[in-house]
Amino acid sequence: MSTDITNEQTAIKATYFSIVGNTLLALLKGLAGIFGNSYALIADAIESTTDIFASFLVLFGIKYANRPADENHPYGHGRAEPLITFLVVGFLISAAGFIAYESIHNINEPHDLPKPWTLIFLGVIIIWKEISYRIVLKKSKETNSSSLKADAWHHRSDAITSVSAFIGISIALFAGKGYESADDWAALFASGFILYNSFLIFRPALGEIMDEHTHHELIDEIRAVAQTVEGIINTEKCFIRKAGMKYHVDLHARVDGTISVREGHTISHQLKDKLRSQIRSLGHVLIHIEPSE
C-alpha cells in the first residue's frame, strides 16, 4: 500500500473520530446546559456543533486533495486543503461571534445559578477533549495535513472553552447569589479564545497558499540526501511548496562540468529517485543540473 493511500486513510479515520466525538458532546453539552442552567455549557455545545460541520468539511477536503493529478491539475489537488481550512476558520469565527453576542445579552439578564453537577460533567469533557486534541494533532503531523491540524485545534479550543466554563460556574457557585453572570463572562472569554485560535489556524494555511518559505528542516534533509548520490558535488537553490499532504521541490544540483548531457541527465534522475524514496512526503521533484566550475 502506497504512502499516499496510507496517509489519506489515517487522516480520514481521524476525521471520523472527530465527527462522532463532537456529535455526542454537542448533544450532551446542550442538554447539560439547559437542565444545569449554564449558558457557558450551551455556548460550549454551540462550538461543538460547528465543529461537526467543520469536520465534515475537513473530510471532504482530505478526500478531494488526494485525488490524483490530471490534465488540468498537473500538481494534483492538494491546495484544496488550505482552502477548506479557511472555511473551517469561518465556522469558528461565526460561532465565536454568536457566543459573544448571547453572552453579553445574558450578562444583564437575571437567571438562576448553574447546577453543581455541571462541574463534574465539565471535568470529564476537559479531559476527553484534550486527549482528542493530542490524538488528532499526532495524526496531522504523520500525514502533513493542514486541515487535520485545524480539526485538532478545534478539540483544543473546545477544551479551553470548557475550562473557562468550569471556572465561571465555580465562581458563580462559590460566590452565590449576585454572581450568576460569572458563567456568562466565562462564555464571553471563551469566544475571545476561539477567535485567537482561528488566527493560529488561518495563518499557516495562508502561508501554504502563498508558498511561504517555512520548510528549513526539510531543505536540510533534502541537501543531506542529495550529498549521498554519486556524481552530485553539492546543491544550490532549493524551493519547496506544500500542497495538501505533499511537498513539491525545485532543486539545483552541481555536477562535474566535463561530463556529457546524458550523464548529467542520468544523475538527475538518480537524485530524484533517491529523494522520493528517502523522503516519502515529497511529491513532484524537479532537478536542475548546474556545471561545477
Name given to the CATH homologous superfamily of the largest domain: Cation efflux protein transmembrane domain
The parts where pLDDT drops under 50 for at least 5 residues are: none
Structural class: mainly alpha
Order of helices and strands: HHHHHHHEEHE
Mean pLDDT: 83
Please, how many domains?
A: 2
What percent of residues are in strands?
5-15%
Plain-language structure description:
With about 290 residues, the chain is mainly alpha-helical. It folds into 2 domains: about 5-210, Cation efflux protein transmembrane domain (Alpha-lytic protease prodomain-like); about 215-290, Cation efflux protein, cytoplasmic domain (Alpha-Beta Plaits, 2-Layer Sandwich). It is built from 8 helices and 3 strands. The protein has helices spanning about 5-35, 40-65, 80-105, 115-145, 145-175, 180-210, 215-225, 260-280, and strands at about 235-245, 245-255, 280-290. Helix 4 (about 115-145) packs antiparallel against helix 5 (about 145-175). The longest helix has about 35 residues, at about 5-35. It is elongated and about 90 Å long. The two termini are about 45 Å apart.
Gist of the model:
By secondary structure, this protein is mainly alpha-helical. The protein has eight helices and three strands, in the order H-H-H-H-H-H-H-E-E-H-E.
Defining key terms:
293 residues; mainly alpha; Alpha-lytic protease prodomain-like; Alpha-Beta Plaits; 2 domains; 3-stranded mixed beta sheet; 69% helix; elongated
